[in-house]
Specification:
about 200 residues, alpha+beta, eight-stranded mixed sheet
Length: about 200
């Protein structure tokens, strides 16, 4: 037999081959993996977390890294929740933590304000991803489906790598692209339909 059952189980050949690793909590996903994915990306960095707050805490000189990426032609996009929306207020009640979602979003917006004039860096408000965060680094992606009454660092987390058309990676990417196109520019003067 060319492929014994044990060997077949060890080698991913189906739709799960895009799953690189799984973490029961986002906090279990090493900061070094995030840094590596950010560093390797050449075309696209998309941060579609509802607050994206943790990135500024866990990644040293994050703003500088984003500036450098944008200067080298990498598209940097942030999709965040609207801190004043009803959805944000509802989620704040569910989370019931001292550091509210709206505060975390405002911290991210303040950090983005420092780098917003860099060509290639863009940000939009979205209400369609309150319970799903998707972070894209070219053909790698970290996905965290948020569970009710929990905060982002407690979310189960998947590291995906694109290996096929219309696979898990492409489905999450299409979802984020749709949210991006429906999103509202964070800064005045941005065109709503800008890609």
């Amino acid at each position: 037999m060319l492929w014994p059952a044990a060997a077949q189980k060890a080698i991913k050949v189906g739709p799960d081959r895009e799953v690189v690793s799984v973490y029961p909590y986002r906090s279990d996903c090493p900061a070094s993996l995030w840094r590596s994915l950010i560093t390797k990306a050449e075309k696209q960095l998309t941060f579609a977390g509802y607050t994206n707050y943790f990135l500024w805490l866990e990644q040293a000189r994050f703003g500088t890294a984003l500036r450098r990426k944008a200067a080298h032609g990498c598209e940097v996009r942030f999709l965040v929740g609207d801190p004043d929306s009803e959805l944000t207020r509802t989620r704040e009640q569910e989370e019931d933590v001292a550091l509210t979602l709206s505060t975390r979003i405002r911290v991210t917006l303040a950090e983005l304000e420092k780098i917003r004039r860099e060509p290639g860096i863009d940000a939009r408000f979205s209400s369609g991803h309150a319970y799903l965060s998707v972070f894209r680094f070219d053909d790698d992606m970290i996905v965290t489906p948020l569970l009710t009454h929990s905060v982002g660092h407690d979310a189960p987390t998947l590291h995906l790598r694109r290996h096929q058309d219309n696979g898990m990676f492409d489905r999450f990417a299409a979802h984020v692209d749709e949210l991006w196109h429906r999103g509202t520019p964070v800064w005045e003067g941005q065109s709503h339909g800008q890609a």
